[in-house]
Amino acid sequence: MQDARAPKPMLSAEQAILQMLSEVAPLTQCVSMPLTDALDKVLAQPVLSNINVPGYDNAAMDGYALRASDVKPGQPLTVAGLALAGHAYTEPVPAGSCVRITTGAVMPLGLDTVVMQEQVKLTQTDLQQQILCQLVPVSGEHVRRAGEDIASGAEVFAAGHKLRPADIGLLASIGIANVKVLRQLEVAIFSSGDELVPPGQSLPEGHIYDSNRYVIAAMLKRLGVQVIDLGLLPDDPQAIEQAFLQGMAKADVLITSAGVSVGEADYTRQILYKLGQINFWQVAIKPGKPFAFGKLNNCWFFGLPGNPVAAVVTLDQLVQPVLRKLSGENVVGEVKLLSAECEVPLKKQPGRMDYQRGWYWQGESGLKVKTLGAQSSGMLSSIANANCYIVLPRDSGSLPAGEIVSILPFSNLLR
Ligand SMILES: Nc1nc2c(c(=O)[nH]1)N[C@H]1C(S)=C(S)[C@@H](COP(=O)(O)OP(=O)(O)OC[C@H]3O[C@@H](n4cnc5c(N)ncnc54)[C@H](O)[C@@H]3O)O[C@H]1N2
Ligand code: MOO
């Protein structure tokens, strides 16, 4: 097999993403599930509405339903009855009369307008109630028309739509109790390194806690995929190979962190060459250069760098779009870069696109941003305390304070 380590120009982030997207195809297996379980799932087929929403003309306000043409200045209308939400009003309404109505109640036949109760003067005699409108209403005012929200037969969502909370409400509003969704993508993860100890245990000299597996699993949960945690492994080629084989057998995708750089104990890459293929390695971004993409039989492989911030940035920026495509999600209209004035100088060397970690806020004359201390890719606090990336182009060098820079507010994976 050809060795992808042979020197070649590093891909830009855009090239890497386009190449990965061009190689992967979405899942097709689907499952039916109750609406209450469907949040963040991806629709396997379009959803059409079988009903009008609202299903009938109804009052948008508490007040009086009437014919707008009956309202003449100084002439009262007799209140002929009461229309309540959930109860049909079947009596004919004589000319010159109105009906007391509550929000959501069906409009009585022949009436076209609702006048809010605050805009009428109510008079009561022993025999009847009358109203005097304080304003001449516009015909159709405060009436919600049948089908004005959703018309019967309309497509409410396309296949590939990922269901958000409001979408669940909308599906309920058209009477849908079960939806056909794509099965969740299964993503196996593991950490490896002799220096790593799981949180909760005491920390021997020269060791650090395994944080990557935790942040990667948390981000993947936000993305709505199934996480298969293969644990924490030593720098032992056999153990790592076993984990690769397990991941290949169980999951659609295997994501590792560490071991993709050039160190002696970087077994991940060696085993990947043995069991599958590396499609590319190294992307011109900082942090995150030693990122690998490949395939192990039917399982896609993403090798994230070990440095914790590099692992987070590559998962967020490079892997996220690919997992979304694999999950069957239609990805359109993504958030783009904003401009902000940077309050602090920024250090950078030309060569790689930089994702510095920043904090942005609304200033008096536009967005402002600053970095929060050191930008080492080993410092998780630099990203945990941030709310955006400051994205510096590949060729850019250091910048003085006061420059306008591009920022990318964090997606929901990091918020
Ligand atoms: N001579 C070179 N050295 C390095 C290069 C290079 O191009 N030439 N690249 C550097 C860059 S950039 C990065 S990023 C790292 C990535 O290296 P690896 O992906 O091979 O990862 P490791 O060397 O195993 O670990 C790097 C760093 O991350 C810590 N780590 C690893 N796993 C975890 C975990 N699960 N939780 C928390 N921290 C973890 C590990 O202890 C190391 O400190 O390589 C540079 N070197
Ligand atoms: O990806 Mo490395 O973290 O640039 O230092």
Summarize this entry quickly.
The chain is of the alpha/beta class.
Describe the structure.
By secondary structure, the chain is of the alpha/beta class. It has 7 helices and 26 strands. Helix 1 (13-23) runs parallel beside helix 6 (308-326) and helix 4 packs across helix 5. The protein folds into 4 domains: 13-29 and 183-326, MoaB/Mog-like domain (Molybdenum Cofactor Biosythetic Enzyme, Chain A, 3-Layer(aba) Sandwich), CATH 3.40.980; 31-53 and 148-182, Molybdopterin biosynthesis moea protein, domain 2; 58-144, Molybdopterin biosynthesis moea protein, domain 3 (Molybdopterin biosynthesis moeA protein, domain 3, Beta Complex), CATH 2.170.190.11; 338-409, Beta-clip (Beta Barrel), CATH 2.40.340.10. The strands form 7 sheets. A 6-stranded mixed β-sheet has the order 7-4-6-5-9-8, with no helix packed on it. Strands 16-13-17-21-20-18 form a 6-stranded mixed β-sheet, sandwiched between helices. The structure holds ligand LQZAQKY5 and molybdate ion. Residues 191, 193, 195-196, 208, 210-213, 257-263, 266, 287, 289-290, 305-308, 310, 377-378 line the site of ligand LQZAQKY5. Residues 188-325 form the MoaB/Mog domain. Its EC number is 2.10.1.1. It catalyses: adenylyl-molybdopterin + molybdate = Mo-molybdopterin + AMP + H(+). It comes from Rheinheimera maricola.
* End-to-end gap: 41 Å
Q: State the strand order across the main sheet.
A: 7-4-6-5-9-8
Number of domains: 4
Supply the helix-strand structural class.
alpha/beta
Q: Which CATH-level-2 architecture of the largest domain?
A: 3-Layer(aba) Sandwich
Q: In CATH's first tier, which class of the largest domain applies?
A: Alpha Beta
Compute the average pLDDT. 94
Question: What would you call the shape?
Answer: elongated
Bound molecules: ligand LQZAQKY5, molybdate ion
Low-confidence stretches: none
Percent helix range: 10-25%
CATH level-4 homologous superfamily of the largest domain: MoaB/Mog-like domain
Query: What is the rounded Rg?
Result: 30 Å
Taken as a percent bin, the fraction of beta residues is 25-35%
Number of helices: 7
Instruction: Outline the biggest β-sheet.
Output: 6 strands, mixed
Protein name: Molybdopterin molybdenumtransferase
Enzyme class: transferase
Family: Belongs to the MoeA family.
Function: Catalyzes the insertion of molybdate into adenylated molybdopterin with the concomitant release of AMP.
